[in-house]
Every structure is written in structure tokens, then in C-alpha cells.
Amino acid sequence: MMEVDGVVQAICAIYDSATSNTDRLKCTQAIEDFKDGPPELVANTAFELISQNSPILRHTGWTLLEDLIRYKWVTLSPELCLTVRNRIFQAIDTLVQEETTESCARCVVAMMEHEWPQNWPELTPQLQEICSRSFLHCAIVFAIQRRLVENVATLASIANARRRKEMHGAMVESVDDFLKLALDTLNSCPLDETNLLAVRNIFGWLIEVCSCVTSDSLENQLIRIVDTVTRYLSTAEGNIYEQAAQCLATLSARRREKSDKSVVISAFFREEVFSVILTITSLAADNSQSNEQHYRFLKSLCEVLTTLGNFLSKVWTEKTPPANFGTYISAIVAFFNHESLYLKHEACDVLVALSSHASFREDEHLMQSLRFVFSNALSAFTKHGYPSQDPPTPASHYSQMDFEDDLEWHNFFIRFRSRLQVLIADNLGAHFEHLLSVYEIDVFQRIFSDPYAVKEAQWEAMQKFSRSVILVAYERKIADKKNERLIAMRNALVAMMANVTVCDVLSDPRPEHQ
């Protein structure tokens, strides 16, 4: 059986580029055979490795420990189990470095899956005490907590349903204490490399907890959570701002009991929150075309706002919109007018949901926003910006980041156009006169001035827009009061057709009259 020196030599040979494949396979098999040896020897060797200066040796040491815990724990003597547990926590105190944080967390969570909470009731206070020592220790603790939530709730990778239920109950009970630690740390954490790791792990834990865990403590502290996370939207170091946006989106979308559904509205629809979100959104939008990271961030901010809008349309029961609704809806319109097809689609979905709600459909801010959207409807109906478009455009640049190929883009565009048609149809009664004016300027006058200059994609967009407005208006008896105006435009187009000699141009989007 190999001793520590033999294990070190085998590991170094495996990672040495000069080692032949045959020798590398032999060394790898030797390590696998070593794992099956006496548990005491494996444990002692692993702890010796994690104390080395080499990152490779440290990582291998934690991997050996995880393998021992995950697959052989139930066969170990109680004394050895306790020894391994205590030595791991001694290592957390003195040996763990940034690059081995996740490896250490995996080992602790593996032990928890065997022992916690029944045989390890002191663990939660122990982790809380460790968290207070330094920001690196805090990073380790929240890496443990994040992996715990992932294994118990998100991925549900613990096979035994009874154990999973027991751990879930204990995890929910501890959320309140760890939430206070997390928020206190975020509010006091100066940002350097080590502290960034703590912040990233806290956000990772928050995102997982908000996604999968129903807890009163989260609802009770929602305003503080939102205020704390919002401040990190302007933190570019380590992509923290993207995690902060994802956290806000998860908070706004999380499952809630019926009695708690109004909490999220009061937490988010505040001037101090929206002013930060909208300012950051504007900055992200300015740089999103040239920077994929900024675009991902912009999409996360869009998810925050659109999730709020969809949630608002489902739970709001007051007769008037919430405070700052006008500010909110202006941001949604800005997303609709963005060059990104993905952002347009998400914004359109929210506009459909809000405009069909009795409390919002006659709101002055929404009415004005819809008029602004409808003024640009023809452009939205036009197929442009597909990924392979040559020469490329800003819209096609975003499409390259969102879609694999032109077919995927086309299918998504059809979905977007269908939602836009629903938006127009649902609001046609209140906005028909404005939509007819848009038709007259963007379609009728455009064709009348020079039908030969209209491109194929523009013809299709004009036809779709015309049917969405005029045909639907006739079907719903909305067009009657503008009948003379429509007939005049139709007659003018028919008269012009007599002078058109190109068959494709003759398929014009004329007003249809029944």
C-alpha cells in the first residue's frame, strides 16, 4: 500500500505533461486502488495533502476526503467519523484557501448528508461562529449553505426521501439566522479579492434559497434584502452586478403563500429601488451591444422588471396602480423599443398582461405607453436582425448572442409577432384612431409615395400590421366611425394599382372592407 510520498509522486506524474499515457494510466489506477485501502490511511494521507503548498495536491486531498465521506462513511467507526469531522473543521480554520473553498464545501455537505441534523445538532451554531472569523471563512460557510440547498431542494440529489425531508426542515429552520449573517456581511463588506468570494457565495446562496425555500423570514426581511442587493447593481468587480440582478429576479418570481403576495409589490415599487434599477439599466443598455457581459446583465434586469409586471397583473386587486407605476411602465417600453428581439418579446408579454387587467388598462401612464409602442409597431412587425444578416446591424448582433441560427430566430420572431398582434387586438377599441393614424402614415403614405421602393420584408410587415388593425377593427365593429376615411384610403390604393405593372407590388396591404 502506498504511503504519502508514493501518492504525491503518482499525482505529480499524472499532471506532468512529460508522462506517457501508459504511465499516466498506471498512476491513475494506483490512486484508485489507494482509495480502496484502509480508511485511516486514506484520511491521514488526504489531510497531509491538503496541507501542501501545491494547489494540485491540496485539491486531490479534498477529493480523497470527499470520496471517503460520500462512499464509505457508513462503514467507518464512530471514532474515525468524529476524527475526520473535527480535522476538516480544523482545516477550515487554518488551511482552506480560495481555490479549495468549493472542495471543502463538498466535503462538509457530504458529511451533513450522513449526520445532520440528528447526529450533529451543533453544526448550525458552529458554522455561524466560523462565519464571523473572516470574509474567507464567510465565503466557505455560504459555499456550504449554497451546496446544501442545491442538494436538498434545487437538485434533490439525496436519494433517501426521508433524509431529504429531515434535512429540508432543518435547513428552513436555519434560514433566518444565516439570512441575518448574509445581509450584515453584504452591508459591511469592503470589496477586495477575498471579500468578492464571500459576496459571490452569499448571492449564490440567496438565489438558491429564494428559488426553492418557502420561509417567513425571507418575506419578513424582503425590503431589507431588496435594498441590500440593489446597492450591488453598480458593482462591476467579479460580475457581482449580474448576480445581484439574478437575485432580484429570483426574489420577484419566488413562490409565495396567498397571504404574502402583496409583500413583493411594496418591496420593489419604491422610488429608491426603481431609481437605482432604471439608472443601472440605462448604463447597461448603452454598453450592451459591444459587451456580451453587459447584455447578459441587461437581460437579468429585464427579467426583474418583467417578472414584477407579470406578478403584478396576477395579484393586484386595488382599483388604482401601485406607486411609481408610471416609472415602471416607462422602463418596460424602453425594453420594447430596444434592438434585441428577446427584450422586445419579454416587454410585450408584460404589456399584454397589464393591459388586460381592469386596474391598469385605463391608467394614464399605460395608455400613453401603449400609444408610444403602437407608434413603432410597423418596425416591430418587420423581420430584420436575424443572426446571419449581412451587413450586420445592432439587432443582428444581439441575435447572434441569443440564437443558434436563423431558424431559431425566425421561430422566436413569429412568437413575438403573435404576442404583438394580441396586444393590438386587446387594446384596439381604446387606440383604434391612433393605430389608424399610424397605418395612414407608415403604410398608406409610404406605398402611395413610391410602391416600388418598398422591400419584401416591409411588404410582409405592412400586411401583418394592416390585418391586425383594420381587419380586426371591422370584425369587432370598431371601424364604423372611421368608415369614410378607410374607404377613401382604399379607393386611393385601388386607383394607384391601375398604374402598377409588377405583380408582387400588386399584393398591397390595402384596407379591407366588409
UniProtKB/TrEMBL annotation:
<feature type="domain" description="Exportin-1/Importin-beta-like">
    <location>
        <begin position="104"/>
        <end position="248"/>
    </location>
</feature>
<dbReference type="Pfam" id="PF19273">
    <property type="entry name" value="Exportin-5"/>
</dbReference>
<dbReference type="GO" id="GO:0006405">
    <property type="term" value="P:RNA export from nucleus"/>
</dbReference>
<dbReference type="GO" id="GO:0003723">
    <property type="term" value="F:RNA binding"/>
</dbReference>
<dbReference type="InterPro" id="IPR013598">
    <property type="entry name" value="Exportin-1/Importin-b-like"/>
</dbReference>
<dbReference type="GO" id="GO:0006611">
    <property type="term" value="P:protein export from nucleus"/>
</dbReference>
<dbReference type="GO" id="GO:0005634">
    <property type="term" value="C:nucleus"/>
</dbReference>
<dbReference type="GO" id="GO:0005737">
    <property type="term" value="C:cytoplasm"/>
</dbReference>
<dbReference type="Pfam" id="PF08389">
    <property type="entry name" value="Xpo1"/>
</dbReference>
<protein>
    <recommendedName>
        <fullName>Exportin-1/Importin-beta-like domain-containing protein</fullName>
    </recommendedName>
</protein>
<dbReference type="GO" id="GO:0042565">
    <property type="term" value="C:RNA nuclear export complex"/>
</dbReference>
<dbReference type="InterPro" id="IPR045065">
    <property type="entry name" value="XPO1/5"/>
</dbReference>
<dbReference type="InterPro" id="IPR016024">
    <property type="entry name" value="ARM-type_fold"/>
</dbReference>
<dbReference type="InterPro" id="IPR011989">
    <property type="entry name" value="ARM-like"/>
</dbReference>
<feature type="domain" description="Exportin-5 C-terminal">
    <location>
        <begin position="292"/>
        <end position="450"/>
    </location>
</feature>
<dbReference type="InterPro" id="IPR045478">
    <property type="entry name" value="Exportin-5_C"/>
</dbReference>
<dbReference type="GO" id="GO:0005049">
    <property type="term" value="F:nuclear export signal receptor activity"/>
</dbReference>
